[in-house]
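Review this fold:
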Amino acid sequence: MVYKWETCPSKVRAIIFNLKNEIMKILNEDIIGFYIHGSLAMGGFNPKKSDIDVLVVTPKSIKVDAKRKLAKLLLMYSNSPFPIEISFINKDQLKNWLHPCPFDFHYSEVWRGRYENDLLKGTDNFLNDSINTDPDLAAHVTITKNRGICVEGKPIDQVFPLIPCGDYTASIIGDFQECIENIEEDPTYCTLNLIRVFWYLKEGVISSKQEAGEWGLLTLPKEMGDTIKKVIDCYGTEKDANGFEKDELLVIKDYIAKNVQALKKGL
């Protein structure tokens, strides 16, 4: 079963509120806002599979000592039990929008080993004051602007800029290409994400993976229906994704790739 913020289990809400409170302690309550985006905001959160997606906006850049404290905190909170993906952006980085967007600090499970190593050895290979950029932030901010949840702070419309369509498209196309390559390894995520990108380019709809699957079931050629049903079922339950044949995935991949290529030419 999947949830949205308003209907999610109390355990999920408690984790998010506790995380928000601990982050505010580290930053001396000096934040503009704490916002949820992704599946929990849009109604496709599966407690067994989904991660928690967060943006934190601050009035100024975060110092290195605070980054080290944030790393320790997120190493403890993430995967206990939900993976957390969180980015910290200051107001100037949003006001003076660039793509790919600069950010002050980011955590996801990909970064776990890097931060653990820096904290253990006292190094600053990743926990430092350098400014990094992330092309995914164009998508994260757009989704927050359109579908996000303000947990603490200023309303979303007062904080986040309107991202140019070209930047959002470039952001989601990067993930689209990875899904084209990896659909056999991760059929559930990749199939739903391919459909989601197709739907956006075709009709301008910003959707969750769950919503995209339901749209695909109604819209894509009928011969793909059984595969899409299986994908939706795997996404919304604890079922694994081992029951897919290579050929059925290639049919969907080739169909969407061809149509997306045509839509991109028309932009």
In short: The mean pLDDT is 96. The chain has two domains: 10-161, 166-265.
